[in-house]
Write a structure and sequence with these properties.
This protein is mainly alpha-helical. It is 57% helix and 9% strand. It has four helices and six strands. A two-stranded antiparallel ribbon has the order 1-2. Helix 2 packs antiparallel against helix 3. The chain starts with 5 loop residues before the first helix and ends in an 11-residue tail after the last strand.
Length: 181
């Protein structure tokens, strides 16, 4: 092996330093590119998720408002309110009240496919009339949604029942003077 002279030794050292500088530079640039790409993608993902969440929120708010409006329309039916007022005053018996109110409630229930049943509940939480006889005299007094729905229309938290998701939609029925029936 020939002896290394100073010129080739210096060239080897420069080559090693340049190679190391290139490796460090490539690694740093690769890391910076990775961080930039990750941040850009994360920002885009968050932006898109925010847009989807906003659309879902608007859609859900519209759905809740629509359901509350449906409940309000049912609760404001003049004949239903008259029957309830007569029943609470003792002017009509239970059978007359139920037969008259069930026709009204059934008509309202048939007007939308989203309603499973419509019930009228008294202050004690007991069903006084309903679209389906299986709900008659049922006790809803422990239902939080019913308690919260005494003051205004409320769409309760969804829960699974009979293999499908359902919510209680509540609305107070009042007299023309604003008294709760």
């Amino acid at each position: 092996m020939p002896p290394l002279n100073a010129k080739s030794s210096m060239m080897t050292k420069i080559t090693i330093v340049v190679a190391l500088a290139m490796v460090v530079t490539a690694t740093v640039l690769n890391f910076v590119g990775h961080v930039f790409a990750r941040n850009s993608l994360t920002e885009q993902i968050h932006w898109r998720l925010d847009a989807v969440a906003y659309r879902c929120e608007v859609t859900f708010d519209h759905y809740v408002a629509q359901q509350k409006e449906r409940a309000k329309l049912i609760a404001s039916r003049t004949r239903l309110r008259q029957l309830m007022e007569q029943f609470h005053q003792g002017a009509i018996d239970v059978e007359t009240y139920r037969s008259g109110s069930q026709r009204i409630l059934q008509d309202a229930c048939n007007s939308t496919e989203e309603f499973v049943a419509i019930c009228i509940v008294n202050e004690d939480g007991k069903v006084t009339t309903a679209t389906d006889d299986i709900y008659l005299d049922r006790d809803f007094s422990s239902e939080v949604d019913l308690k919260l729905g005494i003051q205004q229309a409320r769409l309760g938290m969804p829960r699974q029942s009979d293999g499908r998701w359902q919510s209680l939609l509540t609305m107070p029925v009042t007299t023309n003077e604003g008294e709760l029936l």
